[in-house]
Amino acid sequence: MGTFPVNTWYVAAQSHELGNKPLGRTICNAKLVFYRQADGSVAALEDFCPHRGAPLSLGRVCEGQLMCGYHGLVMGCDGKTVSMPGQRVGGFPAIRAYPAVERYGFIWVWPGDAAKADEATIPQQHWHNHPDWAFGGGLYHVKADYRLMVDNLMDLTHETYVHASSIGQPEIDETPCKTTASSDEVVTSRFMHNIPAPPFWRAALRGNGLADDVPVDRWQICRFTPPSQVMIEVGVAHAGHGGYNAPDSHKVYSVVVDFITPETDTTMWYFWGMARKFKPKDEALTAQIREGQGKIFSEDLEMLERQQANLSRWPERGLLKLNIDAGGVGARRVIDRWIAAETAT
Amino acid sequence: MGTFPVNTWYVAAQSHELGNKPLGRTICNAKLVFYRQADGSVAALEDFCPHRGAPLSLGRVCEGQLMCGYHGLVMGCDGKTVSMPGQRVGGFPAIRAYPAVERYGFIWVWPGDAAKADEATIPQQHWHNHPDWAFGGGLYHVKADYRLMVDNLMDLTHETYVHASSIGQPEIDETPCKTTASSDEVVTSRFMHNIPAPPFWRAALRGNGLADDVPVDRWQICRFTPPSQVMIEVGVAHAGHGGYNAPDSHKVYSVVVDFITPETDTTMWYFWGMARKFKPKDEALTAQIREGQGKIFSEDLEMLERQQANLSRWPERGLLKLNIDAGGVGARRVIDRWIAAETAT
Amino acid sequence: MGTFPVNTWYVAAQSHELGNKPLGRTICNAKLVFYRQADGSVAALEDFCPHRGAPLSLGRVCEGQLMCGYHGLVMGCDGKTVSMPGQRVGGFPAIRAYPAVERYGFIWVWPGDAAKADEATIPQQHWHNHPDWAFGGGLYHVKADYRLMVDNLMDLTHETYVHASSIGQPEIDETPCKTTASSDEVVTSRFMHNIPAPPFWRAALRGNGLADDVPVDRWQICRFTPPSQVMIEVGVAHAGHGGYNAPDSHKVYSVVVDFITPETDTTMWYFWGMARKFKPKDEALTAQIREGQGKIFSEDLEMLERQQANLSRWPERGLLKLNIDAGGVGARRVIDRWIAAETAT
């Protein structure tokens, strides 16, 4: 059985990565090239010129058409050659085209059966372009199975150890989490009351013009949806104002946005970011939070890559499934169900 | 079937690379060491000391003899040990010696059956040490099957795309090439008339004291001879003076010199250079042309290496054989014939 | 048959490498983590957290206990989990613990059957903490079978070639060595009389306040003991004072200390050093000798790594076993006997 479903949408790139040059990127073991057409819409193809096998991603985009950089073959967005200097191209073999859509500031691609691709199933991002929200994020390439990142994000007790100086605090370990699973969603949540805010959240409070030296309530609501999106509602409120339900004037409330895309079976593209619901117009604050989050999330990378190396070295060893792992275990159950359904048909 | 013939001469090094130290280099999957003997002549051996397997290329040359740098074994140019401190060496196993010759500014090696090596078959280089000619060149290591470079050089339509800012121009694409093949030679040629000269050729015209802003005739005559030499007559003449046949006073005429030597099945040593038949004593011009050509030819490397990566990833995919590919296709036909002949015997 | 015995002690680290952080290191193909317990004693475990497979070497040491850096699991020195926040750990699978001991300034580990580990069999280092002796050393990682280093150290004729500018001199080649083997020891020795001292030894003579421009007697007594320790008595004495047996006032006398530990079948950890029996309190001299030796010994690394590459490329080729190789050949015979004995049981 494979390690990921393919009849689904994955984030392939951040919108700003795709300018007027083609972008080569492997997604779910498929070597792809992405480019923008004349109307700005995105196309995705196999990164293979049918003429001599050159990577189309080394080419250029001319008036919205992808041109091979080796001998000038012009490729259509459907994978059929449009033209080539001095050649009749009708008989050229087609390359595979992949459904691709730009939405919510990302490029989404459907690596599986194109006939089944439905843009309506791209998960809505309510914070995108909303006047109450601001977003900043980035991309990491990680040499680990994408599911190790899902595990990581669905069990935040690791914050106490991996991110001790920023968002970790012993109260996370001390507060049990609660995990629920419906057919296609797994939620694990933790609510902490009357605790000190750790450094990252103290800075966020100050960024929102709130006192940072008073007790807070803190929440973490991790929500996995397949194939590999983890949205985490996070924040702190001054204690005594209702916690998660406190009015915006007494809290800092954000959503950690995670799109985790398999590159290969043991490597991933990790799109991370934070959508916040305070001071949305403060661009300096956006940059500051983005930098802080980028630094924190980079702390996970060595751990995951060396965890992957260990698992590859000892493939026969089972892992423990503790209560704190229930989120990741539930997420893998959903993933396995999706893969099995694809395999059956 | 292998990817290259072995009963033939390949260029292994430029003469100036081989000073008074041994040179280790893999040629046609054989790990070799080259060195100069007392009379300056070249010897080539397996890079393996029969004592403990140390690479002889880490040793030194003492009075024209190759001495292992580990324990002082002195190796003869025939692969038989000459001496070793305190040892009788008569029973030492021999290592393989390879025919090697220095000629035309290069070191040539014969990787196959030594009994068949005939120095008379080393291809003549008429430009070498000729008073009317000057030469400059260099060496690139390329992680691609050497035949991809043959293809590249036998189809110069790629200049329009890969070398757009130097030697490329749309007229190359617009002018059909003509390809002819005899038993052991493939020639593909293109003649363009009354066109603007691209930047590289404008500079060459100026270097020869000619106007660079007038229409020119341009020619490209690519000549493949096995195993993997591609000589390309190139140049431009002021239009109206006879083109390729114009007198030297109205043109710039050069030969692109390409010796392409397999290192392994998917890597190569690419010896490139340009022999020019104008201003042969102008060493500054030689350096300038060499630098320009080196920069232009380096533009092919990423393309070929990533093309190779694509072909290795999709080995089952056939490549198109268009009219522009006739030169490369013909060259591979000759190569395959040579390999088949070797395999048969 | 394997390449190394496992029911024996190997040096895994220098004492100063192991501070208050865990140290990850592969020894004999086993991926291990070392750390200091509360009393300073050393523990060694598989570098694998039973919870999710994270490497424990990325964790920290808290009050002498090893804590996983991912989710805070506390591992005991016996490989059984001690505790984990919010968890009952009684049923957690154990990881393997390895006997480990700190002695003579090094961390020793027993990669094989723990029941057979006997600290009494750690080889005594008479120079350690002895008022007449001083020691300086270092560690090199070498991409070669550890036995190639044993060969290297048991045949010092290579000094003439690899270390020509420091300890090499033609008299080494000219003076036959004598090799003797008992059941578990191989000794190869060479005594040279009335020769000039090479640069390294001239500096040592000066360091001991002795004239460096007079003829000397020089000795090299290489002693291999399994699994892979080579101690080499080396030194020079002013000629005419008894050579090896000269009084300390007329000689410089040292022991080259070599512990060679397999990392994998084709890579090693090479712990090198020099214990000297002159001016033991002169720390500047210790530093100077250590730097000189480190530079000299680094000259072997490229040779051994490329020798290994050659042997891996031509695995079917036998190596010569000359008289100068008798030390290494004898050492391998002992090693093979040890491995065979382990395999038999």
Tell me what the structure shows.
Three copies of one chain form a homotrimer. With 345 residues, chain A is of the alpha+beta class. Chain A has two domains: 112 residues, Rieske [2Fe-2S] iron-sulphur domain (Rieske Iron-sulfur Protein), CATH 2.102.10.10; 211 residues, Naphthalene 1,2-dioxygenase Alpha Subunit, Chain A, domain 1. Chain A is 22% helix and 32% strand. Chain A contains six helices and 18 strands. A seven-stranded antiparallel sheet of chain A has the order 12-18-17-16-15-14-13. In chain A, a hairpin with a 2-residue loop joins strand 10 and strand 11. In chain A, helix 1 runs antiparallel to helix 6. The first copy, chain A, is globular and about 75 Å long. At the A-B interface, loops of A face helix 2 and helix 5 of B.
